[in-house]
From TrEMBL:
Uppermost EC category: transferase
Protein name: Thymidylate kinase
Any Gene Ontology CC annotation: cytosol
Pathway membership, UniProt: Pyrimidine metabolism; dTTP biosynthesis
Length: 226
């Protein structure tokens, strides 16, 4: 887009439980910092907020909530940080996010909630420029350390979640400037890191144009009043 101002890139890492998301996000954060790219790492759910603490208790199976209620809490947790994400991007800071709205939809829809209903609370959130989906068969993830410590870490559930992520990828890739990239997370940690870096390098100099909105490709950008 000629004449546009560069802003920070919005990079999301998604995947099944134990796919290596948090480890790869940490490695990518260091690599971006070493390249002198202003960058901020976010993790969803953000368990430090009031809403996040309720979510944390639920995920640890210390409390029970209706499936619809917990889905809306996950979405509200993302909306708590939506404005700060947008402000950081505009200031030239790259946002690196460990899980985002796609996880919320994939897990809730996998539990049997209507797909479109699951998606609706997150419509108009800032849209990532690239989503890196770390794909691994659930039976392989099960063999990794710590598996089963949280509520959703069950193989049958993870199979359903994986199918939902695949649907989201097909529906997201190519909407506006948004890209969805599937990474084979069954490879060695270093190989996966290199695969991720190959795609992230495209955003080293920032991104042209305003921040887009999730599932509103034809809507006004976030920094334009309705």
């Amino acid at each position: 887009m000629s004449g546009s101002i560069k802003r920070g890139a919005f990079i999301v890492i998604e995947g099944l439980d134990r796919s290596g998301k948090s480890s790869q996000a940490a490695k990518l954060l260091v690599r971006l910092q070493n390249a002198n790219i202003p960058v901020k790492l976010l993790k969803f759910p953000d368990r430090t907020t009031a809403i996040g603490k309720t979510i944390d208790s639920y995920l640890r199976s210390e409390s029970d909530l209706d499936d619809r209620a917990i889905h809306l809490l996950f979405s509200a947790n993302r909306w708590e940080l939506a404005s700060s994400i947008e402000e950081s991007l505009r200031s030239g800071t790259t946002i690196l996010c460990d899980r985002y709205a796609f996880s919320g939809i994939a897990f809730s829809a996998a539990k049997g909630l209507p797909y479109e209903w699951c998606r609706s609370p997150d419509i108009s959130l800032p849209a990532p420029d690239v989503t890196l989906f770390l794909d691994i068969p659930p039976e392989e993830a099960r063999e990794r350390g710590g598996y089963g410590q949280e509520r959703y870490e069950k193989e049958e559930m993870q199979k359903k979640v994986r199918a939902m992520f695949q649907r989201l990828g097909k529906e997201t890739d190519g909407r506006g400037q948004q890209r969805w990239v599937t990474i084979d997370a069954g490879k060695s940690m270093d190989t996966v890191a290199e695969d991720i870096w190959r795609h992230v390098k495209l955003f080293m100099k920032g991104v042209d144009g305003p921040v887009e909105r999730l599932w509103e490709a034809d809507a006004a950008p976030l920094n334009t009043p309705p």
